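subagent[fold] <- orchestrator: predict structure for attached chain, return tokens only, no commentary.
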Amino acid sequence: MLLSDFDFHLPEHLIAQHPPAERGASRLLVALPDGTLRDETFAFLPQLVRAGDLFVFNNTKVVKARLFGQKESGGRIEALIERVLDAHTALAHIRASKSPKPGTVLLFDGDIRAEMTERAGELFTLRFAGEQSVWQILERHGRLPLPPYIARAAAAEDEARYQTVYAKHQGAVAAPTAGLHFTEALLAELEARGARTAEITLHVGAGTFQPVRTENVAEHKMHSEWYDIPAETAEAVAETKARGGRVWAVGTTSVRALESAARATGRLRAGSGDTDIFLTPGCRFNVADRLITNFHLPKSTLLMLVSAFAGTEEIRRIYRHAVGREYRFFSYGDAMVLGRKEAV
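subagent[fold] -> orchestrator:
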């Protein structure tokens, strides 16, 4: 597979810069395995559900992970906390005119002091001084990290709208954006139609925005993210499959967690760990039957994932339709429902 196989023309004005006026007021492109394409609104979703279906949501919570400051020796610096290791230590992406060396002291806004202790690949290990934990520092002094294609600083509206209504566990630096469309009322309607819900956690990392730099897709090194599959979710999936119900993965992050945990045996197992799973056309999906997702970047690993799920030619057809009908793209954009290409 070549990177150019996953390219398409996207007019810049289709990149959503703000969420819709109301949560859930987005459009929904329904693309099922029989070839049907339907232009709907997200409120139409419950009409696609059968009693006994299971929806799996990623309950990660976006952290105010961006810190600004300067080196003790001078020079502005920005840190994006990728993962909290313990109360006072974290891995971070650093943006500066020159990368800090071990021993460099960083002074962040809010009188926050940290030392860069070692390099870990593209990440830097930061040791924070003082009594405040990393979580407390981020909550009090951090800023919400919006995706790089949103050409503005985070505003008050983003505090709520770049977070799902069911977010629970802190750890993500990007939202699981398919979940942004769901409201409490819509969740209640799904339940009223006989659908069940379950949760997983996958802390979305900044690597989700990392471009693929190799023309040969197989040479791309996938980023790693931490996930957890609770026992009750594994049991709910098994019960749903046994009854002939369908598993709906809400977002590509849910798919990554589910398929990572089912990779070894073909059956979902409870547990947690890191995953660098790279789902490309030709991969087998063991858990998800339906996928709710937003529209993704050209040449991105997420576009490759949906191509693996629904079929490369089908995704090309869907994206031509979406561009032609001027759907809104990316994190604050519209959504689509995909059927697994071998699913009924």
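orchestrator: received. Logging for downstream: Residues 14 and 117 are 42 Å apart (CA to CA). The longest helix spans residues 231-243.
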